[in-house]
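Protocol step 4 of 6: structure prediction from sequence.
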Amino acid sequence: MPRLHAFELVPDEAGREAVLADWQALRDAGLPSQLDHTGGTNTPHVTVIAAPVLPDDGRAVDVLGPLLPTRVRATGLLLIGGQKVTVARALDVDDALVAAVLGLRAGVADLAHRGWLPHVTLARRVPRDQVATALGLLGYADVELQLTGLRRWDPAEGTVTGLLPAES
């Protein structure tokens, strides 16, 4: 499988801290957490597109830039996968952002996933017998995030490039 480049939306500092608190709670309980991903580019984000080849950076900025910053609400938890699952916060986003993302994704070959399920990943490869513990730790309260930036992940170079403000 080819390495996937990505466009990602990033939250402001308060949103980043809220997600990091979830990551830390999982780690403190001895559960898988995105904190286990020790790469320097691993920070809270919302993937817009993941594919072997992305559209031009300028197009992404033109399509998504006018919609930022935008407030989104994490309104629940998602479980994605089989024997081991990914735990994520589902995001309730404005229709304008959904339409913009789907428009940007249109025509991109070899997308990692069809459609767009906006979410922030909290943990990967959680054994099914630990899911209830993870859900109990994360709770059920909504979390509000403000998405303020856009970045590009390049796995070939191992770099993240900020395309719009908010990278710190």
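Step 5 (inspection) to follow. The chain has a mean pLDDT of 93.
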